[in-house]
Write a structure and sequence with these properties.
Layout lengths: L27 H30 L19 E3 L17 H13 L13 H7 L8 E4 L3 E7 L5 E7 L4 H17 L8 E7 L2 E7 L6 H6 L8 H20 L5 E2 L8 E3 L5 E3 L6 E2 L8 E2 L3 E3 L5 H6 L1 E2 L1 H17 L15 H10 L3 H4 L8 H17 L10 H22 L15 E2 L5 E2 L10 H4 L1
Antiparallel strand pairs: 1-12, 2-3, 3-4, 4-6, 5-6, 7-10, 8-9, 11-13, 14-15
Helix pairs in contact: 1-2, 2-4, 6-8, 6-12, 8-11, 9-11, 11-12
Length: 458
């Protein structure tokens, strides 16, 4: 049975957007009517899958790692085959179509309507919606494949994730995982699954289109006009709510395993939606202390304890979230190889600055500096420091992170409104034009609150 989320962990009841699509996990009424049957189907399917995986586990042997240097895209993925004691859909299934079908019907058996996820969802419609997978419609590339913007027959806009053909065998597991995980969840800060389809060797996932790029693009300054600290706090809270929901308010805890800035999609209203469930793992037993699993994630965001022990817990997401928080207030990538040696690993450098009392120097040069924002940055860094604690016991649960961030945002707003005139909104037509400084960074008067040495700002 679903646990009731707290008020701020709202479960969206947005209606279906397109009758031609086979929607998954969106109809709450249907969910209620069929929940009993679905629970039995889920239970039976899980048991079969576990037995099946154990059988397959005996065949797994090798280990391979590919580590990139900047924490981005598929080059930065760390992949390895280590062990899998509760693996419900092992990589070993990926080379066998009959095994895929097993997993496919497993995923289908838990859909809200109880129907298969392909229904009226035709390849032709998707093909047409993306103008024949035209490069002009391409909105992103990931380890899994290419993401396109699509316009369906009824005019609704969707994101179409098309698996790479040449790597389909290696990524079929991620494809199945993403479908299965997305089909179970519904939250306003998580990207929604609309449907999926198989067509020959094509594997396609159709998800909610989130139209304002990803968080990394905003931090890089290539989207919008730069996020102010209040907006960053709002986004961090959205992410914390989404992950808390995954950890605490689904049937079985879901560990995302790939929390990073490029997986945080931003809406036009600057709300965050967590995407990319390709690596997510479900715990079979809600009371289990950990899952022994293959090591997966993105370099720079991965929990070192998980890397050492292969024991995956919700606290590995908390660690990645800590890295993300540091990224959000410093603007830096988690790993920046071109920096001086002691600045290359951003969390280490930022924590050193915090401990020295120099947190202000770690602040993203794009952020306007005033006492309220400097205080908020320090508080966020303190929280991040707890999230990236070496041992998982010392890290706070994600729910606490959300609460702490909520308090930081509240006191930031109170202070910003009482001590200073309201900060100009860059959405306002009256917002003064910022000049670019010699570092190519937009400057404004608020920099003058604190003088930042050039070597820090470069
Ligand atoms: N639902 C969506 N709506 C809008 N844009 C999206 C959507 N999903 C993905 N994108 C864009 O496509 C990019 C690639 O997404 P994808 O999830 O395939 O890979 P990634 O997370 O960036 O990389 P990796 O797969 O290596 O982790 C995203 O960074 C984002 O900019």
């Amino acid at each position: 049975m679903k646990k009731t989320p707290p008020p701020n962990l709202h479960q969206s009841s947005q209606s279906r957007q397109n009758a031609n699509l086979q929607f998954v996990g969106t109809n709450n009424d249907a969910k209620r009517h069929s929940s009993k049957t679905l629970r039995s189907l889920k239970y039976a399917a899980k048991k079969c899958a576990a037995v099946f995986s154990l059988f397959l586990y005996g065949k797994r042997k090798s280990a391979s790692y590919v580590v990139g240097n900047d924490g981005r895209k598929n080059t930065s993925k760390v992949r390895g085959v280590v062990s899998s004691s509760t693996d419900l859909s092992s990589e070993s299934t990926t080379k066998n179509s009959s095994k895929w079908k097993f997993s496919y019907s497993y995923a289908s058996s838990i859909t809200a309507s109880g129907q298969l996820g392909i229904g009226n969802f035709s390849f032709e419609e998707i093909y047409k919606s993306t103008a024949k997978f035209s490069p002009a419609n391409e909105i992103g590339q990931g380890g899994f494949g290419t993401v396109y913007k699509g316009k369906l027959n009824d005019g609704s806009i969707v994101a179409v994730k098309r698996a790479k053909k040449d790597v389909i065998h290696n990524h079929l597991h991620e494809f199945k995982n993403e479908i299965y995980t997305l089909s179970q969840i519904e939250h306003r800060n998580l990207v929604r699954l609309y449907g999926y389809l198989e067509h020959g060797d094509e594997k396609i996932i159709v998800v909610e289109y989130v139209g304002n790029g990803n968080l990394r693009e905003h931090l890089n300054g290539i989207r919008g006009e730069g996020l102010e600290i209040g907006e960053r706090l709002d986004i961090a809270i959205d992410v914390a709510h989404a992950v808390t929901y995954l950890h605490m308010y689904t049937d079985n805890p879901i560990i995302h395993r790939d929390i990073k800035a490029s997986n945080i999609l931003i809406t036009e209203n600057l709300k965050a939606k967590v995407a990319d469930f390709g690596f997510a793992r479900l715990s079979d037993d809600p009371n289990a202390t950990h899952i022994s699993t293959q090591v997966k994630g993105t370099a720079g965001y991965m929990d070192p304890e998980y890397l050492r022990t292969y024991q995956l817990t919700e606290k590995s997401d908390v660690y990645s979230f800590g890295v993300l928080l540091v990224e959000m207030v410093t603007g830096r990538h988690p790993i920046e190889p071109k920096r001086p040696v002691d600045e290359r690993v951003t969390i280490r450098w930022a924590m050193k600055m915090l401990k020295q009392g120099d947190a202000v120097f770690a602040m993203d040069p794009r952020l306007r500096r005033n006492p309220a924002s400097i205080k908020a940055v320090k508080q966020v860094l303190k929280l991040a420091l707890q999230c990236v604690a070496p041992s998982k016991q010392s890290r706070p649960p994600m729910k606490n992170c959300a609460e702490v961030l909520w308090d930081i945002r509240k006191s930031f707003r109170d202070e910003a409104n009482s001590d200073h005139p309201p900060l100009p909104s860059h959405h306002s037509a009256n917002f003064p034009q910022r000049e670019k400084n010699k570092f190519g960074i937009e400057d404004d008067d608020s920099y003058k609150f604190v003088s930042v040495p050039n070597h820090i700002r470069s």
